[in-house]
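Q: I'm writing a short methods note and want an example of a predicted protein-small molecule complex. Could you take the sequence and the SMILES for zinc ion and return the bound structure as tokens? Please keep the output block clean; save any remarks for afterwards.
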Amino acid sequence: MKPESHMPECNYSSQIAAYYDRQLPMAAQQAISAHLPNCAPCQAQLQWLRQLSQQLAGAAAPPAPADFMYRLHARIDGEGERTLLRTAYSLLSLAACLLLAITLWMQRPGQAAAESTLAWETTAANPQSDTTQEIALAQWIVQDLSGGKAHE
Ligand SMILES: [Zn+2]
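A: Understood, no commentary inside the block.
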């Protein structure tokens, strides 16, 4: 359902998305605000952007379990917000590194790559010391975000 398919050309149509995101200079914002009441295609495009934005917002925030926020705050109070954020960032970095390693390994199945792969596989399979708490926390986050009850 693309709006372009049934819309005639309009000089402003290419700027509607930027207008919706309030990315345009003040003068351009005002010009489009004045133009919109007189242009059905631009109105339709703006409406489409609003609907799309609402759908994306709904998809990004699925209904959480009733006690999710309570447990999240309790967990943050226990762990400390900085620790939680730092853990989340470090997990993202770890995931990116693993993805890169896997990608490189699949593209270059040589002996050297296989040895380096074994190293991180060993680390991932035998989490010790610092990473143990982070991995446990990551598992808790994944379970809660997916609505799982494995840790209950
Ligand atoms: Zn227009």
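A: Remarks, as requested: The chain is about 70% helix and 0% strand. The longest helix spans residues 81-107.
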